[in-house]
């Protein structure tokens, strides 16, 4: 399993639009065969900060995800909504070991 946290800071005027676009992307992403989980979470004390929690069966799933129409639509839609660059942190699961 391959897990990625994507950290995003959004311009204040685009918070709701970012949420809408990201939810649409997540709803389509979880239909991909290599995606186990795709969460969109918003920081409680700073509503402009988000993390996308993506869990893939393998690293090839990440590559496949970035080739989908819904990912490319999301990327184009949100590119002017964010402050700075999105950052990623990669993880490997320790527990549970069900994947």
Quick take:
The protein is of the alpha+beta class. 32% of the residues lie in helices and 29% in strands. Helix 1 (15-29) runs antiparallel to helix 3.
Structure notes:
The protein is of the alpha+beta class. A hairpin with a 6-residue loop joins strand 2 (35-42) and strand 3. It has a single domain, classed as Alpha-Beta Plaits. A four-stranded antiparallel sheet has the order 2-3-1-4, covered by helices on one side. Helices cover 32% and strands 29% of the residues.
| Biggest β-sheet strands, sense, barrel | 4 strands, antiparallel
Strand order of the largest sheet: 2-3-1-4
Would you tell me which CATH topology applies?
Alpha-Beta Plaits
Helix percent reads 25-40%
Q: From N to C, what is the helix and strand string?
A: EHEEHHE
Q: What is the molecular shape?
A: globular
Q: Tell me the count of domains.
A: 1
Count of alpha/pi helices:
3
Computed structural class:
alpha+beta
CATH architecture: 2-Layer Sandwich
Radius of gyration: 13 Å
Question: How far apart are the first and last residues' alpha carbons, in Å?
Answer: 6 Å
CATH class: Alpha Beta
Q: Tell me, rounded to a whole number, the average pLDDT.
A: 96
Number of strands: 4
Can you tell me the residue ranges where pLDDT is under 50 for at least 5 consecutive residues? none
Q: Beta-strand level of the residues, as a percent range?
A: 25-35%
């Amino acid at each position: 399993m391959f897990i990625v946290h994507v950290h995003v800071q959004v311009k204040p005027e685009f918070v709701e639009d970012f949420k809408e676009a990201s939810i649409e992307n997540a709803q389509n992403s979880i239909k991909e065969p290599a995606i186990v989980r795709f969460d969109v979470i918003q920081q409680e004390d700073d509503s402009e900060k988000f993390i996308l929690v993506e869990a893939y069966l393998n690293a090839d799933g990440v590559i496949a995800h970035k080739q989908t129409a819904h990912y490319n639509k999301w990327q184009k839609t949100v590119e002017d909504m964010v402050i700075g660059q999105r950052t990623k942190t990669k993880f490997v699961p320790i527990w549970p070991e069900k994947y």
